[in-house]
TrEMBL record:
GO cellular component entries: TIM22 mitochondrial import inner membrane insertion complex
Function, in words: Essential core component of the TIM22 complex, a complex that mediates the import and insertion of multi-pass transmembrane proteins into the mitochondrial inner membrane. In the TIM22 complex, it constitutes the voltage-activated and signal-gated channel. Forms a twin-pore translocase that uses the membrane potential as external driving force in 2 voltage-dependent steps.
Protein name in the entry: Mitochondrial import inner membrane translocase subunit TIM22
Subcellular location(s) of the protein: Mitochondrion inner membrane
One Pfam family per UniProt: Tim17
Complexes and interactors: Component of the TIM22 complex.
Example GO molecular function: protein transmembrane transporter activity
Taxonomic source organism: Timema monikensis
């Protein structure tokens, strides 16, 4: 009889099994307040979904490239305006004196030319650097060097193969020096 009592099977109801699972596993819902994040440099703020979406949009290659294009356009316009203002357009003493309208038209042409060139360089460089960085999965000086080589080569190819190679080497060296200077 004692053996029969020991081999008797015990069955739980569904409610008892659910209570046992909750007791052993814990609550199935996780709350943010339960997350423990070590504080290293000040208070920790957990980002909302909207903040993460905005951050990912700002860190995308398209946004970086567009911002570099806009900033390059502005910087190029400023440099072009300065260049046009200090560059005399009179070539000799027999030339007629330019009117204000002609001077402003020439300044506009020079300013827009510089602005478009700087915008193109900024957009191409930022886009290529971001694509290389995303592909490599690293952020180091090589990304800027490779992007400089591609950008210089593409821009130099408009004048031929030799100019493309020289442009790639020059722009890569310049990018490397700037990266070294900025990160030191």
């Amino acid at each position: 009889m004692a053996d029969k009592e020991n081999t008797k099977r015990i069955f739980f109801s569904n409610e008892e099994l659910d209570n046992l699972a909750v007791y052993l596993v814990g609550n199935s819902q996780r709350y943010r307040e339960n997350i423990i994040i070590p504080r290293v440099a000040g208070p920790v703020k957990i980002k909302t979904t909207e903040e993460k979406m905005v951050e990912s949009a700002f860190e995308s290659c398209v946004f970086k490239s567009l911002m570099s294009c806009v900033v390059g356009y502005g910087l190029g316009a400023a440099i072009g305006l300065f260049s046009a203002s200090v560059n005399p357009s009179v070539t000799g003493p027999t030339e007629k004196v330019q009117s204000a309208r002609e001077v402003f038209k020439e300044m506009k042409t020079t300013t827009l030319s510089y602005a478009k060139n700087f915008a193109l360089i900024g957009a191409v460089f930022a886009g290529v650097e971001c694509a290389i960085e995303s592909h490599r999965g690293k952020t180091d000086w090589r990304n800027g060097t490779y992007a400089g080589a591609v950008t210089g080569g593409v821009i130099g190819l408009r004048a031929g193969i030799k100019a493309g190679v020289i442009g790639a080497a020059g722009f890569a060296a310049f990018s490397t020096i700037i990266d070294y200077y900025m990160h030191r």
